[in-house]
Structures are given as C-alpha cells and as structure tokens.
Amino acid sequence: MPADEVPFEMAAALNANAFALLQLEGVNGIDVGVGEGGGFTLRLLVADPDDPPPGLPDSIGGFPYILVAGTPRLEQAGIPDQQAYGMPGRDPIMGGIQLGRAAIVGGDVHAGTLGCVFRDAAGAPAAVTNAHVVCGTVGDAVQQPAPQTDPAPPIERLGSLRQCLAPDVPSLFPGGLVSGFFDAALCSVDGARPAEVGRIADIGTAAGVSSPRIGSVVRKRGFRTGVSHGVVEGTLGSYVAHDRDGSERWMMLGQVSIVMIPDLGLNPQGVWSRSGDSGSVVVNEDDEIVALHWGGDGMRGFASDFAAIAFTFGVGL
Hints:
The chain is mainly β. 8% of the residues lie in helices and 40% in strands. The protein has a seven-stranded antiparallel β-sheet. The protein has a six-stranded antiparallel β-barrel with strand order 17-18-19-22-21-20. Strands 5-14-15 form a three-stranded mixed β-sheet, with no helix packed on it. The two termini are 25 Å apart.
C-alpha cells in the first residue's frame, strides 16, 4: 500500500487538521495506517490509548480515527559502539556504525548512526545521517567513532559536514514548534578512511533507493541496537519529535512509522530502536533503502522517505 493510494479526501482531512490537533496536549502525532478491516484509517498517536488526553474530536474532517501508543523521541546517544565496524585500522567505513560531531559540547557527546555511504554527483563518497546527530556549522568535523576525548584523535576523523536539512519553518501558531520534512545531514568521507558505497553492517549491500510502502517488512542496523526488523504501518505522518529529556523539539511532516515485529528471534533486544540508532537507514525486502530513521519509542520507529532525501542531496548508490 503506497501513500499515493490513500484516498484523497482522507489525506486532505489529515493535512487540514494536523497542525491544530498537534497543539492539543498529549497528542504526539497523526498519520494514515491500516485499520482492523484492512482499509486505510486515520490514527492519533498518544502516550496511552487507554487513557486518552482530553479534548479529542469525535472525528477528523468527518473521518473516524483510532488511537495508537506512540511518543517519538530523537535517538542520539554517547555510548561507544561495541562492534569494531569502521574503527580506524579495521573494516572500511559503511552504514550501521557509530559517528558523531567532533566537538564535545558541554560535556555531551552527540553520537548516532551513519546510515549509509553514497556517491555524490561528482562520484565522491558521502555519508548520510540525521541532522540532530551531527549538525552544527557546515564544515564542522565529523568523527567515526564519536569522540570520547576533546580534542578528538585526528585518525578518527571521518570528514566534514556538507549539508543539513532540519525543520526550520516557523509555526502557524504562537509559541508553536518549527516544522519540516527532513532531519538529515550529508558528510564527506576523507580519502584516509576507505569506504564501501551501499554496504550496511550485518545487512549487506543495498540494491537501490525507493520509498516506503505500508505493510512492507523492513530492517535497519543502528549502532546501539544492531539489526532490528519491523513493518511499515503508517504514512503521511505528522509527529512531534521529543528530545531525550522529553521536551518537544520540532514537528516532522510527511513521515512514516514502523512497528517492531514481536519476535525475539528477529529482534533479540525486544525493541525496534534505542538511543544511538538515529541516522540508520531502513531497508526493504528488495534490499532498497526506503527511509531514514530519526526517532522511536522502543516499539515504534519514525522515519523520513529516503527517495526524497537522496534527490535533495543529489546522492545515489
């Protein structure tokens, strides 16, 4: 079920009401998912569906809706990767490993996951991750692994920040959150760090780039959780992204949600993601990269359509 199969009237009702609904205390997101009957339905994300927040409408633009548990949180961390992937002198740079800003700000290490290495229009390798993981100023140094000392060892330099795409559109409501469609960053990969384009640790080499479809079985490799498996369950989502301390950071528009497959054989950690997995790429069963993971709440993950990110950055495999 691709997003373009969502009934026009339902998509219009979501878009017309999303900003107002997200101003309601306790509402963390709205998207289109699949209901019990197998058809599309609107969904509101709240902390506890059994204890819904007050003031919810009877319908959304005339459409019924269901409540789903979900509290999107950005997932950067400062915990070293226990795997040796991409460590200097070891395997080459690839997706699914740790990276971070070279600067340690206020004693806080900004660490996340390098999603994948691509080629830019000139054929040079470039790494994609989340803006909230590495973005400071264009030209800033990026390290792999994330630095544990300040200054960071020169041998662990990955490259420099080339471009950031983060929510920056002012709110329509006084005191509201900025919004946007992307939480993505593009970094160069220095020649001193050999890289494998398209390779993702523990997953293999990606075959291409595409867009996510509802019902697709997908997987990702985050530096903290390793490989996890899920199913795309929501599209056209507008979600409030929370920082690690629970404060609201910004609003993400046009997103997808992924629910963990409840199988410890596939997900031995019992979660889709944990802090540190921000920046992971999401791969479908055809080995296509379809989304960029930016947050989660354990059971669910939230991500951006990767086809749009690749087009905007001008990168490919």
